[in-house]
Amino acid sequence: MIVLLVWTPTSQALPRKRSRLIQEGVGWDRSSWAPGMNSLIDALGFPDKSSYGRWMRWDKAGLNCLLNDKGEATELRFEKNFKGVTGSGVKFGMSADRIRKIYGDAGTMEWHDGG
User: Fold this and answer.
1) Do the Cβ atoms of 16 and 40 come closer than 8 Å?
2) Cα angle value 14/4/64 (rounded, 5°)
3) Cystine design at 73: which of 24, 31, 65, 82 (Cβ 3.0–4.6 Å)?
4) pLDDT tens for each residue of 85-105
5) How many CB atoms lie within 10 A of CB 14?
6) Cα–Cα dist 32/8, whole Å
7) Could you tell me the CA-to-CA distances from 112 to 63, 109, 115 in Å, in that order?
8) Distance, CA of 25 to CA of 4 (rounded, Å)
């Protein structure tokens, strides 16, 4: 399962503290940010050697990101070993029923490439 958080780039910098709280509709650590590569390295260390092109990976942290042509992160993907939690308490390993109790049923659902 991959959780996808996409945001619109802003001029705010990446938060320095390593909070793992993801606030729905806002961002990570209660701020909306589009960090550049240097800010990501400051927060997460150098990306894994398996990174390529604009796709950066930090497998140990359970986080991947896609950079735009300006070097700003435009998409974060949180993998199953990511230890973070949303502001509503959703985290990896929760049952679909428990997540529906928190968020309710989806208004619509789309499948793209089996995901």
Assistant:
1) no
2) 60
3) 65
4) 888 998 888 999 999 999 998
5) 19
6) 8
7) 21, 10, 5
8) 12
pLDDT at position 55 is 92
CA distance 16 to 21: 13
Whole-number Cα distances in Å, 26 to 10, 52, 95, 98: 12, 28, 24, 22
Amino acid at the residue 10: T
pLDDT below 70 — which residues of the chain?
Answer: 1-21, 26-35, 114-115
DSSP helix/strand/coil, 70: coil
Cα-to-chain-centroid distance, residue 98: 21
Please count the other Cβ atoms lying within 10 Å of the Cβ belonging to residue 12: 13
Task: Strand 3-6: give its sheet, edge to edge.
Answer: 3-6, 73-78, 63-67, 55-58
Give every CB contact of residue 21 below 8 A, 6+ residues apart in sequence.
28, 29, 30, 84, 85, 86, 87
